[in-house]
């Protein structure tokens, strides 16, 4: 009888264990495994949406790529007055290899790139050829754009020495398989010209494959506009003006009637060639966070200097409508007031200025109907300010870029392209090592392929 | 069959006395401690097998065979006493409590053991030691009481997470917290806070319900808990009823709290003078170096005066204002109110313990509060000689009014950053909204953050005694944790919360954690062999459901709940599950009461492990030799007890994440479209960390055990670290879990308990001391960072501070200097260019040694106990140093001492560089802000008076005790900010240790109480 009881108990325990061992097979609820995620066309389409989400991250084009350029490239335009030390070090030009902002922009940018790489490796799942072309075009637009931003920030300028010899950034063009291969992840920096070649290849394919109309996603016009920027930075003025002119003349864009209406909008404006979407439920507008007054829920950490204001002629609407003062008379940019506003990446006004610069410097036959003076005048008359000179100099165009495109991420690249010298917080020529972001120390530590490839001025 | 057996036994019992002429002796056994009857005391006629036990009233009757003249009274917790019978027929005996505790019963995994038979290392803390301490959670109360157990409260916020390290940190990326087991059931200890500041799920346990706490430290003790035991196991046993008269106890306590230490900040006039000086210094430098004045260089506006700069930078300020912002962080009515009611009692068959507690603690910081109601009923019932069962039921509800994390402008401690020349309130009494940083008082008046936890930790058990030596026990336990976090922010706080017209956050979490233990216990004495075997299985499953919503835009500030918002901005929550299926066994063998051998093992299978590594095995073996039982020592007058023990075994540490081995994709959003993106790299063979621990110890007793002690030396080597290893960011990922790397903890522990004086005036001392050396021996080249400057790196203890080394001030010009420390060119050269200096190891947040010294005195009705607790040799980095004590670089209020000591004239020898507004001069992160944070603290001091029985018996009371208890009354340290026991909440992690950043000082509480028994 006793044995019977024990037997029942033991049998009970064995049964319990058998029942329990199935319970060790649990699945996550908020995530899916790789096999499930990518087993359908919808999976690839969702991944493309995910790529835009990453691109719009605050550390990528959601603000910090633009602010890094403007904080480093400010030439008596802005002050950093915030408590965060990483942007402060950018502004002071005393960054170290441990600059946290340089690190997260790098890692988030490559996260974006990896998503595009996964999409490009799974295109064969998409059966419809038009759909496949669109997805490929968008992925390549995003990848090309991100590589362009990376090579501009983390490497020497295109014209600073020999771009074929200067180190660019690592080119990772295959997806990181989620079953990780350590050997495949050790990659070194490619040269500046290799990265530019990849950027141009991606954007050119995007230009061919993307449709003209694609909602707020990338279009062929966005690819052309980005190419215009790339060529301009390469001092390839001819192709820069050509691409810019194609967008101006054949694209569906028009300047908004009043300059401040190009900003703080929930939907794309008629002059947005490409903008990142921010809603009250998704997206981050870091530009608003750091530029806006506290009354707009901003931190007002980036403040405009008197010199910047003084560049405007009186009556310029870019002064009266886009510069304001907060309760303590801090001078702030009015481009970023609405925390849920879209982030304009490229707008039509920039393309007029690219074409003007291209036509002025490329020589040969003028591209497009407008002279550089005409293009400048388009911008200035919209701002209701004094007329542009008939025959503007390059200095006139650069000034106009500063007035029109200020705080949109162009300061550093304009300084470098014009080989100018920064005279704020010390004196920094365009090719100073201090203007180049460090390769993040964590990358040097984690990737043996980067041994000895740190940028000059950042120690070992 | 059973009946026949029973009657046989009865007959035997009746027959036996008939063999000889015997006499009957009876009497009563009481305790010398309180005169109370001692039930259950074994009474044995010396030299015979005749014996009995006392009944509930301490009475006994025993038959004494002829020729026997001595009775032996023994009971666990009391000293064994012998009494000569002589011609008496009534022999009353008083038993002394056993101060040596060597015969104490110690709770171990799936059973109990007598302390002197232990071969493992277990620290025990009696419930009495932590009773009625005015602290929100029992883990805080353990500080300084258990050797080798390092306990740290990050700061003085109530309900926050507490760091507990048993013999050092055994992991880099997985948890370093011990496993908590309440009455045999593994409870939920996950941090469920929705902010970066962890909360403490243990705070829901009523510490007055705790009978004892055992901390299993070495492998011999802990490996029966397998893959979760590498950080030690804390076994909590709650109080149970004793048969006898029902006793009631009512306890009332009221306490008053204040901060332990406060730094001294500049007052208004000094602030103005100090910053004017910094402005002038900068102006002079700019004129010299750039030919520009301050306004021109800084703003492009030449000729600005200092006052104009203040106008521009500060907002509303007043040269005559003198606001003490730092003090505004604290509330006046801080303290605790607590009521406890308990009842316990029962009879032979049924025993019960029931309690109810209500406590309301107001923290030192404005709005900080922790309220708790908890109830418990523990019932044991013996249905028959063979079958008994019982129930432990507890329910508690806590409401914690919480504060912003330390790194937010809205947390009260950040008020101290505000300039004293800015008044907190305007003349009309409204709060100043135009301050240089957000005025946190606005938040305190326009927001709320409440975390409500409803928790039920209960279990039922049944024991079937097949034979006197074989029993089977089955337990089923649940831990249901319901948590609701509710945040409301009014429109005045919009600038800090990014809301438009206010906002709300609500998070509902339900953790259903259930488990069952089923095991056999076999215990038998064969001649001089004693064998105990435990074998069984256990299954645990935890299911967490969670939903969070963030929304904004209320009609107005009268509406404060989520449902009244207009715009949902985020939906979140992390539902997740895990399960463990385990088999365990242990055999303890004792030969001749001298030689001890113990073997144990556990097989753990878990959903957390990779499919290729689902089950792990964790064995341990230990030996003990009670040398004092050897003939050559039994007669020793000095050495009354001596035991040598040694153990070796494996324990594990499972991943904190439930699905770490899988390749995962997560959902995201762009505009209003749903997207996906990869979130985690796979590792199908991911498994537990392995810790091999060796322990050698000596337990000793001197002078008839008036002095007892333990000395232990251990080596804990952990390999296959569950490392969240860095991968190149170019892959699109940051980290990947792999089992790689090794670390070790080595140390020794020393415990001594001494009964210095016995008698009417008694004095006992207890001292513990522990030293642990942590070293990461292999990290596969990874450098894992945390905190501000902390990192995990090979060859160093976990969390070392790695940064620029400050070299003081150049006496010629007041420049801050830094050691260059070029690894390629090591020398002591300095530079004033921060970027020219290289980082190096500058400090260690891990203490060299820790310990506690406790003394208890009693005389007549009075008792006095005080505990000093110490931590020595750890460094703390003040991450707020760059703001609080930069070089007057920005307008944060500064430490008084830095103003006094700043460099001013060539030749000044000081460590504080010249003040320079807006120019970096020593404000950068460097060892300048690193300090030794050793301290000795009078952790608890309690004085009690028990009213004489003669007085209270007239009022039909059993006992009346009046007491005063003080916690954190005195702190001795060289740390010059607030309190040295600190780790800022938003950065606390395995690696992020020893950081101060506007962290609140610890709470000093003096409480008064009365406890009445009837």
TrEMBL record, chain A:
Q: Where is the SusD-like N-terminal domain?
A: 24-232
Q: Residues in domain RagB/SusD?
A: 340-420
Q: Which residues, if any, are the signal sequence?
A: 1-21
Q: What is its main location?
A: membrane
Pfam families per UniProt: SusD-like_3, SusD_RagB
What subcellular compartments does it reside in? Cell outer membrane
Q: Which CDD domains match?
A: SusD (cd08977)
Recorded hits in Gene3D superfamilies, A to Z, give:
1.25.40.390
One GO term describing the cellular component:
cell outer membrane
> Any idea which UniProt keywords this protein has?
Cell outer membrane, Membrane, Signal
The reply on keyword Ribosomal protein is: no
Q: Would I find Transferase among this entry's keywords?
A: no
InterPro entries, from UniProt?
SusD-like_N, SusD_RagB_dom, TPR-like_helical_dom_sf
What the record says about family reads:
Belongs to the SusD family.
This one is known as RagB/SusD family nutrient uptake outer membrane protein
TrEMBL record, chain B:
- Which cellular component, as a GO term, is one annotated location? cell outer membrane
Domain (TonB-dependent receptor-like beta-barrel) ranges: 465-968
Assigned keywords, A-Z = Cell outer membrane, Membrane, Receptor, Signal, TonB box, Transmembrane, Transmembrane beta strand, Transport
Q: Where is the TonB-dependent receptor plug domain?
A: 115-233
Signal sequence span is: 1-20
| SUPFAM superfamilies tied to this protein | Carboxypeptidase regulatory domain-like, Porins
Q: What's its membrane topology?
A: Multi-pass membrane protein
Any idea where this protein resides? Cell outer membrane
- Pfam families registered for this protein in UniProt: CarbopepD_reg_2 (PF13715), Plug (PF07715), TonB_dep_Rec_b-barrel (PF00593)
Family under the similarity heading: Belongs to the TonB-dependent receptor family.
Per its record, how is this protein called by name? TonB-dependent receptor
